[in-house]
Design goal:
- The protein has 197 residues and is mainly β.
- The protein has 2 domains: 79 residues, Elongation Factor Tu (Ef-tu), domain 3 (Beta Barrel), CATH 2.40.30; 91 residues, Elongation Factor Tu (Ef-tu), domain 3, CATH 2.40.30.20.
- The chain is built from 4 helices and 12 strands; from the N terminus they run E-E-H-E-E-E-H-E-E-E-E-E-E-H-E-H.
- The strands form 2 sheets. Strands 1-2-5-4-3-6 form a 6-stranded antiparallel beta barrel.
- Strand 4 and strand 5 form a beta hairpin.
- The chain is globular.
- The protein starts with 7 loop residues before the first strand and ends with a helix.
C-alpha cells in the first residue's frame, strides 16, 4: 500500500527482455533503492513492483505481460525518469490517499496551461474509467496522489503546485505523453457492489 507521495525520481539504467512477455527494469535512486531488500514493494511510475535485484543505489524489478500492456512501463527506455515511493509502514504519516499501485489504464496529456504559481494539465479520459473520475475526487497519475480539478465527459484536469512540478516527472510532461492512471480505490469497490445488487 502506498500514499501517492513521491519520495524520489529514479532513472532507468537498463531494460532487459527476459522473454517475449516479461522484462526486467533496473532503476537507480539513492533515496529509494538504498536499503531495499528482495521481495519489497516499490511503486514505480504508479505501478507496484517487487524488488528482485537490490544493488546499492539501484534495484531490479520484473514486469510481466499484463503490466506491460496496461501501463506505460513497456515504453520505458534507458535514461527515462520515473516517480518512486516505498511501501507505507504501519504508523507512517498518511499524506496522500490510499494507492494500491494497481494501474487501471493510461491517459494521454492533451493540454497544459501554465500560470505563475501552478500548472493545469488536461488529460483524455479513457472510456472504461469515465464513471470512476469525479470532480474533487482522488486520482493517481504516475504514482502521484492528486485531486481532480474538473471532470468532463471525456477529459479531466489536475492542478499542480510548484513542488509537484519540480519533484515528480509530471513537471516535464508535454502533450502526447502518457501517464499511468489508478482510480480511487473506494470508487472501484462501490462500482463492483452496484453491479451485484
Amino acid at each position: 500500500m502506498f500514499t501517492g507521495i513521491v519520495q524520489d525520481t529514479g532513472v532507468v539504467v537498463a531494460v532487459e527482455d527476459l522473454t517475449d512477455e516479461a522484462r526486467r527494469l533496473r532503476i537507480r535512486s539513492a533515496v529509494v533503492a538504498t536499503g531495499a531488500r528482495p521481495g519489497e514493494s516499490i511503486c514505480v511510475a504508479g505501478v507496484c513492483l517487487t524488488v528482485v535485484e537490490p544493488d546499492g543505489p539501484e534495484f531490479g524489478a520484473d514486469v510481466m505481460k499484463e503490466t506491460l500492456e496496461r501501463s506505460s512501463l513497456g515504453l520505458l527506455g534507458v535514461g527515462d525518469r520515473v516517480n518512486l515511493e516505498t511501501a507505507m509502514a504501519v504508523g507512517d504519516r498518511f499524506g496522500g490517499h490510499i494507492v494500491s499501485g494497481h494501474v487501471d489504464g493510461r491517459a494521454e496529456l492533451l493540454e497544459r496551461t501554465d500560470s505563475e504559481h501552478w500548472r493545469v494539465l488536461r488529460f483524455a479520459l479513457p472510456v472504461q474509467l469515465r464513471r470512476f473520475v469525479a470532480e474533487k475526487g482522488s486520482i493517481t497519475l504516475d504514482g502521484v496522489s492528486l485531486t481532480v480539478a474538473e471532470a468532463g465527459a471525456d477529459w479531466f484536469t489536475v492542478s499542480l503546485i510548484p513542488t509537484t512540478l519540480a519533484e515528480t516527472t509530471l513537471g516535464a510532461m508535454v502533450p502526447g505523453d502518457l501517464v499511468n492512471v489508478e482510480i480511487d480505490m473506494l470508487a472501484r469497490y462501490v462500482q463492483r457492489l452496484l453491479e451485484h445488487q
